[in-house]
Design brief:
alpha/beta; TIM Barrel; two-stranded parallel ribbon; 32% helix; 19% strand
Length: 362
């Protein structure tokens, strides 16, 4: 089976073409057609030689993941189940906001971290996604938007917050990010891409060899005992070791680390948790993003009361921290944070048991 074109960065493709007797300038021509124009009809590539087209046809695949299901939430969030070439499936989500459209991208089929609050974690890890399968999520949905919403509709932001631990798949996520940033490919700005990690310390220590994008840490508790209950990874990389690694992250001027904090009723939403956070986090270098727990079928934890969430945010703001509440989107189709799992049959069951909204099957 031919290698996927989308596994190549611009520099990789230049080298590949030169190795096979073509000019490295050909990489610019092909990248323009595929990424800038999103034109996959090679017969219309007017400035690409017949010889190169024949070479591409024989040696590289331009296939993208297949959309096998999509659902739309009452708030406009769209979730897609994508089928990969080996039959495995992953989920990706489009999240609308007033001035942007964010895609939540998966990095693995399943996840090995096993966080107790996460639906994906119940699936276990099946395999890493290739660079092509990561970038393919973005390209497939970009084409879907053109065909089904508007020809000018664009995905403006990316968050690696889908299925999997991105840093566990370090090299493939790195190469995909290089393509997302490269002006010859997708040309997204550094501030438009965010990578979220559960705290995989050895890979955090390698972030000086990663493109300079936004980094988010799944913290969820500033107390080791509670964090270990929620995230087994804390047994290996506790808060002390985690924050030693975080201090080494190369931050550009005026950049901060975002700490994702999942609020769970009665577990990590009290005064003791406020105090622990204040002891742990630096005000100037930290932003705290509160995420009210999103329930899913079979979950043991409960969503906190709205009053508790607001109190928690206000307490931190009054102490000089930048603290926001992430708006829950797509929970009626299991598309919210922590709800992704490649079993779309359960989505319909969840919606039938809920008064939250209607699922539109496409």
């Amino acid at each position: 089976m031919p290698n996927s074109f989308y596994n190549y960065t611009f520099i990789d493709l230049q080298a590949y073409f030169v190795e096979n007797g073509f000019s490295k300038f050909c990489a610019k021509q092909v990248f323009d057609w595929v990424y800038k124009k999103q034109n996959f009809d090679q017969s219309s590539w007017s400035n690409v030689s017949k010889k190169l087209k024949e070479f591409l046809f024989l040696n590289l695949s331009f296939d993208l993941p297949e959309i096998v299901w999509s659902g739309e939430s009452r708030d406009g969030t769209r979730k897609f189940l994508l089928k990969l070439s080996d039959g495995e499936t992953i989920e990706t989500v489009l999240i609308p906001a007033r001035d942007r459209l964010t895609q939540c991208i998966s990095s693995q089929v399943g996840c090995a971290i096993g966080c107790n609050f996460c639906h994906t974690g119940t699936q276990g890890l099946k395999r890493h996604l290739t660079t092509a399968e990561i970038t393919g999520q973005y390209l497939r949905l970009s084409l879907w938007l053109k065909e089904n919403v508007h020809v000018e509709e664009r995905i403006t932001n990316i968050v690696y917050m889908g299925q999997g631990e991105p840093l566990h798949n370090f090299q493939n996520v790195k190469k995909a990010t290089e393509n997302f940033l490269d002006d010859c490919a997708f040309g997204l700005g550094q501030r438009r891409i965010t990578l979220s990690t559960s705290g995989l310390v050895p890979k955090i220590e390698m972030l000086d060899d990663f493109p300079p994008i936004n980094i988010a840490i799944s913290l969820h508790s500033a107390r080791n005992d509670i964090r270990t209950e929620l995230m087994p990874i804390n047994k290996a990389y506790d808060l002390e070791r985690l924050f030693r690694a975080i201090k080494k992250i190369p931050l550009k001027a005026h950049r901060r680390i975002t700490y994702e904090y999942l609020l769970i009723d009665g577990l990590n939403d009290g005064p003791i948790d406020i105090e622990a956070l204040c002891r742990l986090l630096n005000r100037k270098e930290s932003k705290i993003n509160l995420i009210p727990f999103n329930e899913y079928p079979g979950s043991d934890y409960k969503k906190p009361k709205k009053e508790t969430t607001l109190w928690f945010m206000n307490e931190l703001n009054q102490r000089g921290y930048t603290c926001t509440i992430r708006q829950t989107k797509g929970d009626d189709i299991l598309a919210a944070c922590g709800q992704l799992k490649t079993e779309y049959e359960k989505i319909n069951l969840w919606s039938e048991e809920s008064d939250k909204g209607e699922v539109l099957f496409k």
